Amino acid sequence: GQQLNQSPQSMFIQEGEDVSMNCTSSSIFNTWLWYKQEPGEGPVLLIALYKAGELTSNGRLTAQFGITRKDSFLNISASIPSDVGIYFCAGGGKLIFGQGTELSVKP
Amino acid sequence: DAGVTQSPTHLIKTRGQHVTLRCSPISGHKSVSWYQQVLGQGPQFIFQYYEKEERGRGNFPDRFSARQFPNYSSELNVNALLLGDSALYLCASSPVLRGTYEQYFGPGTRLTVT
User: Where is pLDDT greater, at A30 or B35?
Assistant: First the structure.
């Protein structure tokens, strides 16, 4: 079945640093979504991508839909403590999720 | 506007019992999906409903069932609970079945099976 491989699994960075995480699939996806989940809450949609090559920003977040339609990346610029959480990539209509990237930000 | 709501927030059951979880979608959203999230993993797709009909099912046993009501709210039922059913159960709603796959999640129901 389809699987999403997300990396890195965890990141521990200093406030103000930029962050990059990516997601690869064994199959082609027509949609890539990026979510953030904080403890005790459901995932919150950050960015949705619908076209290969598409580059979309949401504030300090930027995500790209890979040309091959088998990958996507998410960048966070100038990280702040409230960026802490688990970031998930997801693809497809009946969403398939990656394993998540846990982000820790040191003030 | 209210987001996706789920009830109850937490639930403790014993093995062999059954459980019913409830979800109300965002107003105007007609599609509801259910996901299971085990600690330390990403959510796993269980069901998708649109206009009261099942439109997709993940790799879960028949002990799991769901339905959608005329007001688009939904219930997830799990029978003969196992310890491995302990998880966060998430409901997500989206406005249409095709054209957009933006799903908006509720806070989840934390199920503990003892």
Answer: B35
